[in-house]
Amino acid sequence: MFNKVLIANRGEIAVRIIRACREQGVATVAVYSDLDRDALHTRLADEAYALGGQTAAESYLDVEAIMGVIERSGADAVHPGYGFFSENADFARAITERGVTFIGPPPEAIEVMGDKISARLAAEAVGVLGVPGTTEFITDPDQVRAFGAEHGYPIAIKAAYGGGGRGMKVVADEAAIADAIESAQREALAYFARDEIYMERYLTAPRHIEIQILADSHGNVVYLGDRDCSAQRRHQKLIEEAPAPGLPDDVRTAMGEAAVKVAKGCDYTNAGTVEFLYEDGEFFYLEMNTRLQVEHPVTELVTGLDLVEQQLRMAAGEPLEFTQDDVTITGHAIEVRINAEDPTGGKFLPSPGRIDTLKVPDGYGVRFDGGYEAGDEISQFYDNLVGKLVVWGRDRETAIRRTLRALGEMDVRGVATTIPADVAILEHPDFRAATHSTKWVEDTLDLSEVGSSTDPGDDAGDQEPTVRKDISVEVDGKRFAVSMWVPEAAPAAGRAPSRSKRSGAGSSASGSGEVTVPMQGTIIKVLVAVGDTVEAGEGVCVLEAMKMENTVAAGKGGTVTEVRVVPGDSVGSGDIVAVIE
Predict the structure, then answer these.
(1) Closest Cα to residue 287, out of 113, 105, 86?
(2) The domain that contains 531 carries what CATH number?
(3) Higher local confidence (pLDDT), 401 or 503
(4) Most buried residue, 299, 351, 412, 543, by CB count within 10 Å?
(5) pLDDT value of residue 20
(6) In contact, 339 and 385? CB cutoff 8 Å
């Protein structure tokens, strides 16, 4: 086993890995941006080092900065978590060339499966077929037009080096091709540092099924059952469960065996996930994620295996201690992603800000994997996952009831969350009957009456003064926690106390001519100019917040008389970006 593991990530997954390492007696090293100086993962790790910068590109995607921390900390292994560099072969190779273990697959396997096109070819080589798609990158809109003429619409344009729905756009017709290409490339570059894209036929009502595999360096590969991840919006998962409900046993087995074939075909080692689309009794290979998945806890609850522990052991060269015949699935597990988003009216608008109150549920079969505590700030620059509520039950109905009970106990204030939408999904008869698909949330689920309070918690108002102040200091880039006993400071003159962020619709209120932004973020595209005529609901600009693009629309029709932003501008909730008369 390792002496010291550096976690090249942040938030919930960094916390999850730190805890698993501590249970194995392994020391941990956290890295952090300027905005994450006092984040939960830095507080829990044995050591924490500054990367500098605010955005992911300036910090968590800065290879040289991370390499410097490896050198200074003496870490003998690196765990990438998910996102960021987790599926970056160059990063994995740079780690191993330093004589440090990369806790994940070898760079060669990441290259094959990280590039979704070569991944399709690798799967086809072992007899596992996907939906119709291309095996070359998109470089011109005419390629998409030709594909649409042959296979029809809709078409999915996807990041070749990404996952989790980031950098994916669905093209409904020829008119939407150019904008979809531009948007997909922009998101892919922002989240994965690469902007290559490809396309495939977009199934209209499939279920999203994935198979968790483990592969050691001794030739042993097993699959740990399956998961259903069909409850999605914007191609990103909201609720996952294991095992997949209502799946025929022969299909379930065939998927598992196909996943093992794909892993063996690319000499894969460590943990990974092979994803499939299932529709009308058939399943199609989608992609392989060469990392730990966000939804891995549901597999842990039904198998009794700690997947991060397994990753550590496999990376250290240990063989798996069990075979396929030893894998048993017990009960049913559901994971609910608690995102800082406002689901009012089904919009799911990002809701960055300070978490004033965070009270998590407890009880038999209930687990919460979180990346924040009360008082922490959720930044517009990073993913919006607050934490994951994971619940086990002896059967699916028990798990659903227990999850609803737990959601009812959960109290998050200061930022909007997806909890009201999660409850609506779990209570819906389509979900209970497992007849939902990947498009069901957006096309069928009625969230018109769903809202989300962002009222500050009880502890956000007047409080008794305290005299203890916990702060962090840096010495040569290394973080240390320090406690000081001082009088509580009053707010600086002219500065209001911290208050919660409120997210509204992405347009001007009540048909006003002032077009305002609903949340803090960065303007990445301006769609109008002074003198243009627009209609109510027409896009005025595109705002990026929490790695998600949001179109800010006009609240009424008229002529644009002012445009107050340009691409690259940072804006706050309620800022006016344009005026229409």
Answers:
(1) 113
(2) 2.40.50.100
(3) 401
(4) 351
(5) 98
(6) yes
CA separation for the pair 115, 126 (Å, rounded): 17
pLDDT of residue 483: 60
Question: Tell me: the pLDDT tens digits for 490-525?
Answer: 444 333 333 333 333 444 444 678 999 988 888 999
Are 243 and 213 part of one and the same domain? yes
Instruction: Tell me which residue of 63, 61, 72, 60 sits closest to 11, measured CA to CA.
Output: 60
54-80 pLDDT, tens per residue? 999 999 999 999 999 999 999 999 999
For the entire predicted model, the pTM comes to 0.78
The CATH number for 175's domain is 3.30.1490.20
Cα 173 to Cα 3: distance, rounded to the nearest angstrom: 55
Q: Is 227:244 a contact under the CB 8 Å cutoff?
A: yes
Q: What range does the domain containing 163 cover? A: 132-201
**In terms of domains, do 348 and 426 share one?**
yes
User: Is residue 81, in this structure, part of any structural domain at all?
Assistant: yes
What sign has the CA pseudo-torsion 558, 180, 88, 6? positive
CATH number at residue 288: 3.30.470.20
Which residue has 């779990």 as its token pair? Answer: 426
Query: Does some domain include residue 111?
Result: no
User: What is the mean pLDDT of the segment spanning 23-52?
Assistant: 97
**Main-chain phi, psi angles of 145, to 5 degrees:** -60, -45
Q: If we measure between CA atoms, which residue out of 99, 49, 45, 106 comes closest to residue 76? A: 99
> Considering 86, 103, 120, which residue would you say is the last residue of a domain?
103
Assigned domain for 464 exists: no
pLDDT of residue 163: 66
Q: What are the pLDDT digits (tens) for 448-465?
A: 988 865 654 444 444 444
Read off the pLDDT of each residue in 203-228 and give the average, rounded to a whole number: 96
CA distances from 61 to 54, 67, 320 (A): 11, 11, 32
- Residues 320, 423, single domain; the answer is no
| Per-residue pLDDT at 333 | 98
**Domain-located, residue 216:** yes
How many separate domains does the chain show? 5
* In a shared domain, residues 194 and 273: no
Alpha-helical regions (H) of 444-485: none
- Give 346: exposed, middle or buried? Use CB within 10 Å, 0-12, 13-18, 19+: middle
Amino acid letter, 50: A
